[in-house]
Design brief:
39% of the residues lie in helices and 18% in strands. With 257 residues, it is of the alpha/beta class. The chain folds into 2 domains: 158 residues, Rossmann fold, CATH 3.40.50; 88 residues, SIR2/SIRT2 'Small Domain'. Helix 1 packs across helix 11, helix 6 runs parallel beside helix 11 and helix 9 runs parallel beside helix 10. The structure holds 2'-O-acetyl adenosine-5-diphosphoribose and zinc ion.
Length: 257
């Protein structure tokens, strides 16, 4: 399986990765679904919807600041780093992620399409104001603040710049992702349950156009029925092994059969 995936990637003309919460598990960030998933402990409709934010912005901000703190403590793991290295090697053309944790960029990936936003970005609910808290250097002060965050331009509430249930995806990100998928001859799907649309269309688009689908997951997902290669395992363990195989192949030492 690993050898087959490595050969597909080594030969790929335009490979992309499509990632979900599972790739950040080994960095200590919980997933949404499954045994220890966030949506088991918290009800999504109470926290990640525009209605919830209208009803109780304190509760929603408490939840997001807790997640921001958790993510700030986290570091990219070998799976994120391997994707960055594959991009450096010219094999991977982009990472399309459903994650809001910024760990792909922290790991060094340059072409990152964030379909569900970024938890370190905030935006005003009534004017076009946006701020990246990491870039403005305000993030630590921001997560400690108990009062609701207000827009410095107009005084309205600030909200996380992430996509909530019932909200459309950012048009620009979605178009970019779909056009990458249309060009891709290989997609490496890592750590997603593949049940949230339109994001989950990405591997289907690649497949429909004759591309190959490689999946790495600890269990089967909504994408598994269309995969060409399924590698069962933790992303942080599988990815470095996969990279070694690819390097062997590129060095001409393809003895794995
Ligand atoms: P999920 O929580 O739905 O799925 C996580 C996936 O990661 C599951 O398929 C697990 O089997 C897998 N997994 C767990 N540990 C892993 C590991 N160490 N290595 C590899 N895979 C592992 O997360 P997503 O598919 O990302 O949306 O969820 C999609 C969207 O649903 C999220 O972006 C979020 C959520 O509601 C929004 O916030 C809009
Ligand atoms: Zn404003």
């Amino acid at each position: 399986m690993l050898g087959h995936a490595a050969r597909l990637l080594a030969r790929a003309r335009f490979a992309i990765a499509f990632t979900g919460a599972g790739i950040s598990v080994e960095s200590g960030i919980p997933t949404f679904r499954g045994r220890n998933g966030l949506w088991k402990t918290y009800r999504a409709e109470e926290l990640a919807t525009p209605e919830a934010f209208k009803r109780d912005p304190h509760l929603v901000w408490e939840f997001y600041k807790w997640r921001m703190r958790k993510i700030l403590e986290a570091e990219p793991n070998p799976a994120h780093r391997t994707l960055a290295e594959l991009e450096n090697m010219g094999i991977l053309k982009a990472v399309i992620t459903q994650n809001v944790d910024d760990l792909h960029r922290e790991a060094g990936s340059k072409k990152v399409v964030e379909l569900h936003g970024n938890i370190f970005r905030v935006r005003c609910v009534s004017c076009p104001y946006k701020e990246n808290l990491k870039e403005s250097g305000r993030v630590f002060e921001f997560v400690r603040e108990k009062d609701l965050p207000k827009c410095p331009k107009c005084g309205s509430l600030l909200r996380p710049d992430v996509v909530w249930f019932g909200e459309p995806l950012l048009r620009e990100a979605l178009e970019k992702a779909f056009s990458l998928a249309e060009r891709a001859d290989v997609v490496l799907v890592i750590g997603t349950s593949g049940v949230v649309y339109p994001a989950a269309y990405i591997p289907y688009i690649v497949k429909e156009r004759g591309g190959k689908v490689i999946e790495i997951n600890v269990e089967k997902s909504g994408i598994t029925p269309i995969v060409d290669v399924f590698i069962r395992g933790r992303a942080g363990e599988v990815m470095p092994k996969l990279l070694r195989r690819i390097k062997d192949i590129l060095a001409g030492g393809n003895h794995y059969g």
